[in-house]
Amino acid sequence: MYKPRYTGYFCDVPGFALGHAMDYEGMTGVTVIRPLNKATASIDVRGASPGTRETDLLCAEKSVGEVHGIFLAGGSAFGLACADGIMDYLRSQDIGYDTGVTKVPIVPGCVIFDLAIGSPLAYPNGNMGAEAICAATTSDRSMGNIGAGTGATVGKVNGMVSAMKSGLGQASLQYGDVIVSCVIAVNAFGDVYDPFCQNEILAGPVDISNKKIKPTIDVFKDMEREASKVGGQLMNTTIGCIATNAHLNKSECLRISQMAHDGMARAINPVHTNLDGDALFTISSGDKEIDMNILGALAAEVVAKAIVNAVVTSEGIKGLYCYHDLQVAPAF
């Protein structure tokens, strides 16, 4: 694995474990966030083509206030089935919402579309979900072609023929005794930039003849105004989870997710398109106090850094270039 550009990992926030399962032949996978203590969460969805499960329960007005796991997965809507294995495992551990007759684990999640890179018949199922949560550890530092990032790609305006490999990224920041972290699977329609390094373009549609990136916006400008010329339909979506040891309720988790999308917008362009299902969870398990404006700003920064790490740690596969393959031929 290539080294990340920015420091920190999701599990730097105490009380969370992270686990992954992969199918490298089918090029898909799942990442599971497991809270080890009582945790509150919410989600903000900005993309127009999301694939989600149990996210309505995270609305502030809904009665359930605790989540027992969150998953990020490939496989498009098929990949939502990985929740079955996660729930079965948690139920076997007597973890879940107590209904009086049994405990029902609350496991929301999101999926990306990765069916075009490996096999369209390969997607995370219950077995893969169970494998991922069983593998969850508080010391996970996995990035790149792993978990939900196994089949992630970016820069698909011309379709998969010129797309680049992306993956899963992590990062964290600390402000006093408050820690905020992010894990994210970057499968964007648009390009990825490093907003902290002169807005360097890291990944986008590649001109195979010269191994250079042409930014998606420039490709748009060269196109006639025909929707049929835009490639990459349904092949996108960036999904992630922010964690913090700050004490937040569901409404406050939602607000942090909303502010954190600014980090996605700094690192991905274009973002939140009709062809993306971009979504960010925020999960809180702690008792630290912090101003919400500061926490939201930190969340946006850590999201952008995790996105950069997802691209620079990924390896080229299935005929797709990665960031490191193009360093001898910088973007124009």
From TrEMBL:
State the UniProt keywords alphabetically. Answer: Aminopeptidase, Hydrolase, Protease
> Which Gene3D superfamilies is this protein grouped with?
L-amino peptidase D-ALA esterase/amidase (3.60.70.12)
Instruction: Extract the InterPro entries matched here.
Output: ArgJ-like_dom_sf (IPR016117), Peptidase_S58_DmpA (IPR005321)
CDD domains named among the record's database cross-references: nylC_like
Q: Name one GO molecular function term.
A: aminopeptidase activity
Q: Which domain of life is it from?
A: Bacteria
The Swiss-Prot or TrEMBL record describes its family as follows:
Belongs to the peptidase S58 family.
| Protein known as | L-aminopeptidase/D-esterase-like protein
Which organism was this protein described from?
Alkalibaculum bacchi
